[in-house]
Amino acid sequence: MSNATIEAVERPGVGGVKRPAAARRSFPLWPILAFIAVWLGGSWLVVGGWLSPLLPGGWGTVVIALAATPIPVWTLARGIRGDSYPTATTRLLILRPFWFAMLFMPMLAIVTLAGGLAGLPFGAAGVTGRWTLGAGATLIGIAAVVGYVGSRRLVVKQFEVRMPRLPPAFDGLRVVQISDLHVGPHTPRRFLARVAETVQKSNPDLIVITGDQVDDFARDVELFNDAFGTLEAAHGTFAIAGNHDVYAGWNAVRDGLSAAGFEVLVNEAVAIERRGQRLWIAGTGDPAGKGWPGGSGQGVAPDVDRTLAGIPRDEPVLALAHNPVLWPALASRGVDLTLSGHTHYGQFAIPSRGWSMASPFQKLAMGTHREGQSLLYIHPGSNYWGIPFRIGTPPEVAVLTLRASDDGDAWISEVKT
Fold this sequence. Notes:
disordered N terminus; about 425 residues; alpha/beta; 2 domains; 7-stranded mixed beta sheet
């Protein structure tokens, strides 16, 4: 627990929840700079080395460019510490090129080395390395254009969810899920308006936002509220913490969401009622709450037992957990349906193969899953993070219609329209 002052906050339908007042946050700058020096700096030395004969200033230009690589990290650190608020211009001209470089520079270094090694026996390592570098850069440029178009192609996916314990009163309940919006001043307002309009036109009975509302900075919540603060559903609009909300400073993000009227759940649950029957909506914390510097002092680390405490064992539960890594613990405790996000499907996926760029890093990376009578849907995200790039996994608004199971079996399937 941090030394920050503790204040009790009364929230409708939830009771007293204690959380720390805002405090200035630390940021582990030097370990990150060391990683970038190896990952990005090493890649640039390879690419720059092959390009140096063609660059004005040769190796001097390469070294100057290398020396500039800490600038985006310093900018990011100042923002997260609360020393400054990166504007749209800063994010577009400093941070976005940095994320592009982090992703694509190592790829260019690999193809350059491969080309150079292929030409080495013929004394043409420089020429072949530059040719493969040019070819690689061309392919990456094409992919970047295709990925940008994909990042703006909003889709609506319809799902039918069969839940054995769903009370008859909730049969046909329409749950609309959006996730991982990562809103900031650089996010196109027209796109956010399309998302909000699509959600509202889906006739939701319940709206859930499964984390990562903001793009790493607490003040981004103001822009999020401007875009989504007018969403309405008969049973409310619920939000939970994602890892980027924790990085931004969860206490400030939560206060902003609550002030705008969102029902924010962290390791707690509320019941919604229809004709005297109940469905519980439970929201977990996020693992970043215990792994991020300062996160443990924000009261947002996941506690599944606390989340489900007080829910009668025979009543159905819809859980919201940003990171699907929490699903096994929820499933083992009998949670009927869990809605997650977080992975973005790596923003590059081959759905027909059930594979995404997130798959090598996380077992539960995409799609639907079942364990006994417990179901999971992993949302691919409704926007992007880092760079506007999505291939095979467009931004999505998910509409899940809950149905009572006639045969006592649980399943979830996409409804093609």
